[in-house]
Design goal:
GO terms for molecular function: ATP binding. The protein is an alpha/beta fold. It folds into two domains: 183 residues, 3-Layer(aba) Sandwich (Rossmann fold); 68 residues, no CATH class. It contains nine helices and nine strands. It has a six-stranded mixed β-sheet with strand order 5-6-7-3-8-9, sandwiched between helices. A three-stranded antiparallel β-sheet has the order 2-1-4. Strand 6, helix 7 and strand 7 form a beta-alpha-beta unit. Helix 8 packs across helix 9. Bound molecules: adenosine-5'-triphosphate. The site of adenosine-5'-triphosphate (ATP) has 11 residues, from strand 1 and helix 1.
Length: 259
């Protein structure tokens, strides 16, 4: 198993230029995700959630501030295969089977797929796709494709998992099922997880802490701690304490300060 890694976002500023006009996308954004924790990042459209992930993945550079993964720059953690990524669009290669799609990060890192055969088989079981190893993406449902993307994100046994609205395109019923599965996978993998989501229910069900963002400029308005014990059961979705917390997150989103 990988050593645990924390993710520390420190004083990020990011300005984009749009047709000659400067637009402050992020203003002094700081967020510490302790090793092994599950953090949800929630906020209105355009507040800069995906920009934070892009900076955390070294896909773009901040104007000021830094992101470190286990104390190192993101590029180093990525090179060591310590990061797993899943986005809203599962982006599977249509000509590759389920198992070959899951193996893709190993191919990119130049690690022999043969040595990981047992791990790939375990992951297929973990995401409930036993029997579909040789299926092509076109033969799967949307939820199954998303589960392939989650398995692919986990194939390098990452210490850190970045998830950007991975279930955004799924219907409510399937989304809840995927939330329950993601919790199970996270409890097994212990990866430090940062989940970008628009779903308040999803954030409260899954996260240890929810970072609530406001926009224009994008900033962290507050952190809501989620105290529920794990494993969290589906019955939590109907618990009054759950609804009190979703109300608190909604209030924080709409401007009321987090207590
Ligand atoms: N490459 C870019 N060039 C110019 N502006 C950009 C670029 N990337 C992001 N932005 C702007 O930065 C802001 C934040 O975008 P970002 O995608 O991070 O928001 P978000 O919170 O993830 O939104 P959503 O919830 O809709 O996905 C937006 O106003 C967007 O237009």
């Amino acid at each position: 198993m990988r050593p645990a890694r924390d993710v520390v976002v420190r004083d990020l500023d990011k300005t984009f230029r749009l047709r000659g006009q400067a637009f402050t996308a992020l203003d002094k954004v700081s967020l510490a995700c302790p090793a092994g924790s599950f953090t949800a990042l929630i906020g209105p459209s355009g507040c800069g959630k995906s920009t934070i992930l892009r900076l955390a993945l070294g896909l773009d550079r901040p104007d000021r501030g830094s992101v470190t993964i286990g104390g190192a720059p993101p590029a180093e953690a990525i090179r060591r295969g310590e990061t797993g990524i899943a986005f809203q669009d599962p982006a599977l290669l249509p000509w590759r089977s389920v198992e070959a799609n899951i193996a893709l990060p190993l191919d990119v890192l130049g690690q022999p797929r043969r040595k990981a055969a047992g791990r790939i088989a375990n992951l297929i079981g973990l995401v409930g796709l036993g029997g579909f190893e040789r299926a092509l993406p076109g033969e799967l449902s949307g939820g199954m494709r998303q589960r392939v993307a989650i398995a692919r994100a986990l194939v390098t046994d990452p210490a850190v998992l970045f998830l950007d609205e991975p279930f955004g395109a799924l219907d409510q019923i399937l989304r809840r099922q995927m939330n329950i599965e993601l919790q199970r996978i996270w409890l097994e993998s212990h990866a430090t997880t940062l989940l970008v989501t628009h779903g308040i229910d999803e954030a409260v069900f899954l996260a240890d802490r929810i970072a609530v963002m406001h926009s224009r400029p994008g900033r962290i308005a507050g952190i809501v701690e989620v105290p529920f014990a794990r494993p969290r059961l589906p019955s939590l979705f109907t618990d009054p304490a759950f609804h009190r917390l979703t109300d608190q997150v909604a209030e924080a989103l709409h401007g009321t300060p987090v207590e």
